[in-house]
Amino acid sequence: MTNLLEFLNYTESNLKISSEKAKTYPNIDWEEIRLQIEGVFENLENYLFNKVLLEEEENQTLQQILSLVALIKYVCEERLHQIQAYKVSVDEFNFDFKNPKGNRFSNEQVQIMAEWYNVNIEHPYLNTSSMEDLRIRTGLTRVQVRDWMSYKRRKQKSKFISNELESYFTNN
């Protein structure tokens, strides 16, 4: 067995291991594999530089090496394609997992509605003319004004404790 054949067999077994790693492990160091393949070709070039004719077994092993390199290249390209497709899908559906801030009314809009509410605290329910007036002054829709007032009434109501429950919260 010649030095070339030994080298070819050694190279083939290393490339088989690398191809299995490339097919099996998603987080493989692709740069390491690329450098390994470059090293294989440099060493092959050195061995083959003065070799005019290859023996049959050397030729077969060299063909196997070229097939393994092609396989590794294919696996690398497929992995790259998967990574790029995943990156695109993540970018397309880039969710910000923070709670949404929501649409807030401006301070001026809130102040206008709060003033109306405080003036009408005894009966804080909108009639048609009040609704229209607030809608025009705030620039909000009828639904937005109605919902804000409804929320404000619920919030105000929750601040008070009913007479039946008051005894449970006082220190007597």
TrEMBL record:
Chief site of localization: nucleus
Record-linked InterPro entries: HD, Homeodomain-like_sf
Coiled-coil portions: none
Organism: Suhomyces bokatorum
Cell compartments where the protein resides: Nucleus
Record keyword Nucleus present: yes
One GO MF term attached to the UniProt entry: DNA binding
Glycoprotein among keywords: no
PROSITE patterns noted in UniProt: HOMEOBOX_2
Top-level division of the source organism's lineage: Eukaryota
SUPFAM superfamilies assigned: Homeodomain-like (SSF46689)
Cellular component, GO annotation: nucleus
Stated name of the protein: MAT homeobox alpha 2 protein
